[in-house]
Amino acid sequence: MNCRQYQERILDAFAAGEATFPDALVEHKRNCWACRAYCESQASLFYSIDEGVKAIANEEAPQSLVPGVRALLNDELPSPSSWMSAWEVAAVAAAILAVSFGWVLYRPVRHTVSPNDRVPAHSAESPVAVMRRPAEGARPSPSRELKRTSAGAVGHSAESSAAAMPQMIVLPEERAAFARFVADAPEQGVVLAVTRAAPSNEDVPFQIAVLEIHELEVQSLDPSWE
Amino acid sequence: MEELPEKLRLVLLLAAMQGYTLEEVSGILGIPMGTVKSRLFFARKQLAEKLR
């Protein structure tokens, strides 16, 4: 090996942190003043590198770091004055609830159903759906009466309310009699009748499979039964 | 130091920190022990060549 190759070995040994050199390198360094000087310079260089890196890695944070970070955080957070206080939020929520509750109680009724008008006279093709209210809650109240829409169908809101109430299907030829029953029997708890179009009953084809039963001979597993 | 690649600089700084052995650096970075040693070697060598 020449001096350049030896110096490369010296550099690699210092970079790897090796404490000892191979015997051949030690022998060459003893006889070559240039490689000996190079080894001494590299030792000084790597000592400086190690000390500098240790100083950087173990450097304590400056005293101004924490206050600076806090100042940045405070700048990024919105000021408290821009936020509504909890009392303001509660007041707004209470106002919204009060307005909504008042509207539900005192909203105008579009149409009041009279006893003679509870079942429409037309739409003879449609059956009648009747909703009953409990007798104890049968006190007429304009705000609690359902709105009747066009004949044979109820509005969306009434339909959703009717879904929670019992229903009765009345044949078209019985509608007049049922209307008289509804009008003459409020004491039985019937307070309102709302008509709704019946779903179209289309003929659905169906098949009847032939059931075949074969004779079976059942044998007992118990020999004493034979 | 800033001219070193990030992966070399990180290994060099962690290895230089007091209390961190090469095994701990390997565990922190999730890389094999040999990779830690090689990165440490190349980091020190590149620094020496830049400071020469």
Structure description:
The complex is a heterodimer of chains A (226) and B (52). In chain A, 43% of the residues lie in helices and 2% in strands. Chain A is built from seven helices and two strands; from the N terminus they run H-H-H-H-H-E-H-H-E. The longest helix of chain A is centred in the first third of the chain and has 25 residues, at 33-57. Chain A is elongated and about 130 Å long. The N and C termini of chain A lie far apart (107 Å). With 52 residues, chain B is an all-alpha fold. Chain B is elongated and about 30 Å long. The chains are: A mainly alpha (226), B mainly alpha (52).
Brief summary:
The complex is a heterodimer of chains A (226) and B (52). Chain A is an all-alpha fold and 226 residues long. Chain A contains 7 helices and 2 strands; from the N terminus they run αααααβααβ.
What about the largest sheet of chain A?
2 strands, antiparallel
| Poorly predicted ranges of chain B | none
The structure class of chain A reads mainly alpha
Number of strands of chain A: 2
- What integer value in Å does the Rg of chain A equal? 49 Å
The N- to C-terminal Cα distance of chain A equals 107 Å
Structural class category of chain B? mainly alpha
Name the helix and strand elements of chain B from N-terminus to C-terminus, one letter apiece: HHH
The separation of the N and C termini of chain B measures 14 Å
Rounded mean pLDDT of chain B is: 88
Residues in helix, % of chain B: over 70%
Oligomer: heterodimer
Primary descriptors:
heterodimer, A: 226 residues, two-stranded antiparallel ribbon, elongated, B: 52 residues, mainly alpha, 3 helices, 73% helix
Layout of secondary structure:
The complex is a heterodimer of chains A (226) and B (52).
Chain A: H1 3-15, H2 23-31, H3 33-57, H4 65-76, H5 86-106, E1 130-131, H6 156-162, H7 175-184, E2 192-193
Helix pairs in contact in A: 1-3, 2-3
Chain B: H1 6-16, H2 22-29, H3 33-51
Helix pairs in contact in B: 1-3, 2-3
